[in-house]
Amino acid sequence: MSTVVASMFTWPLGEDAALIPRTVAVAESYQALLEANHERLARWFPGFDRPPTPEGTRADLELRGQAWLDGSQLPLVVAVRAADGWQLAGAVNLLVNGPARSGEVGYWLDADFEGRGLVTRAVTAVLDHAFGRLGLERVELRTIPANERSRSVARRLGFTQEGVLRAAAAFADGRRDEVVYGLLAAEWHRPVSPAVGVEQP
């Protein structure tokens, strides 16, 4: 997959990986990543019923970039080190409700990069930021019951399953339940194993 990009801003996740802002600067590479993973994503996430288009991807990235500027979202791509830059491997996002001091984290990863601990490292970094610099008191994580990989991430990071929202997720082939996990600032203890770096300009 040819998804190598250069970036002026990276948020290290150890020596081999980093988070990069998900903006129009990575539009071409992100479009290629979405195309390669469209069918997989459609199984787990609502809203992926139609194949991605370059125009739609760019418009979405523009909206997310603006949301980053106004503080309502932290849109990032997960990238692994390549010979001439970074290869995109997935995405992580934090929706921020400033007045409520709460957020919701979501993520996905290309199948070729699963099993490396990238999601755990990426979400750990985002949670550190959410409960640290952003001062949030609560972060939610939602997934469908059949997505056991995502549910394992939630348990590994200390989230508590709080309930099931019946028919809350609208997929192209019908509605599905959503499992809701919650994590409070006072409960956050970052995992020992992942090597997570610090933010750099």
Provide a brief overview of the structure:
The protein is of the alpha+beta class.
What does this structure look like?
With 201 residues, this protein is α+β, with helices and mostly antiparallel strands. Helices cover 28% and strands 34% of the residues. The protein has helices at 27-44, 54-69, 118-131, 148-156; strands spanning 4-5, 11-12, 17-21, 73-82, 85-97, 102-109, 138-143, 160-171, 174-184. Strands 1, 2, 3, 4, 5, 6, 7, 8 and 9 form a nine-stranded mixed sheet that branches. Helix 1 (27-44) packs across helix 2. The longest helix has 18 residues, at 27-44.
What fraction strand?
A: 25-35%
Q: What ranges have pLDDT less than 50 throughout 5 or more consecutive residues?
A: 194-201
Q: What is the helix fraction of residues, given as a range?
A: 25-40%
Task: Describe the main β-sheet briefly.
Answer: 9 strands, mixed
Q: Kindly state the mean pLDDT as a whole number?
A: 90
Count all strands and give the number: 9
What count of helical segments does DSSP give? 4
Radius of gyration: 16 Å
Helix/strand structural class? alpha+beta
* C-alpha geometry: globular
SSE ordering? EEEHHEEEHEHEE
The CA-CA distance between the termini, in Å, is 28 Å
Draw up the topology in text:
Elements: E1 4-5, E2 11-12, E3 17-21, H1 27-44, H2 54-69, E4 73-82, E5 85-97, E6 102-109, H3 118-131, E7 138-143, H4 148-156, E8 160-171, E9 174-184
Parallel strand pairs: 6-7
Antiparallel strand pairs: 1-5, 2-3, 3-4, 4-5, 5-6, 7-9, 8-9
